[in-house]
Amino acid sequence: MLIVIAGIGMTSCTIHESTDYRITVHNLMYADIFVSGHYLPFQEFDVLEIFFNEKVLTDITIGEVSRPIPLSQGVAYTISLSYRAYLYNLDTGKWEHNYDGFKELGTEIWGAGECMNQVLELRIGGLFTGYAPEYEIFCE
User: Is 48 among the domain residues?
Assistant: First the structure.
């Protein structure tokens, strides 16, 4: 009798794989420079808009994390970024608007077996990338 009940319990459990993913954006676009033995603030970017095809997140300042947005499995999402760049003025000790920019970051496809909640971290690349925005995706 115990074997029959255990068998029923095992067969009634179905694993459902969702095809929807959730992603948040974390703005870590800050760069400093090393001068005369000290790190000094150099540049930071605020996100004006980040696009995942037609889905848009807006106004993500340095250090902030966006609200999550849903993405579907198997869809190629072109990720592009509109941002505002600031340079640090050592004389005044304040950040000053330098320019507004736009960059297409790349294309990502979410597939089966990936974690459902993910974080896209935005950073400023180094000298060899011209201090342009870069990204990396992690499981939350």
Answer: yes
- Structural domains counted in the chain: 1
For residue 36, what are the domain limits?
18-139
Q: If residue 4 lies in a helix (H) or strand (E), which one and from where to where?
A: helix 2-11
Question: Using one digit for the tens of pLDDT, what is the confidence trace for 39-77?
Answer: 999 999 999 999 999 999 999 999 999 999 999 999 999
Residue 11 has pLDDT above 70, yes or no: no
Q: How many CB atoms lie within 10 A of CB 32?
A: 14
For residue 89, being part of any structural domain is answered with yes
What 8-state DSSP symbol labels residue 113?
A: T
Q: Tell me, yes or no, whether 64 lies in a domain.
A: yes
Structure tokens at 27: 């703005």
The CA–CA distances, whole Å, from 45 to 19, 69, 88, 89, 107 equal 33, 21, 11, 15, 21
pLDDT (0 to 100) of residue 20: 82
- Does any domain span residue 13? no
Q: What is the CA radius of gyration of the chain?
A: 21
92-112: pLDDT as tens digits: 999 999 999 999 999 999 887
pTM over 0.85: no
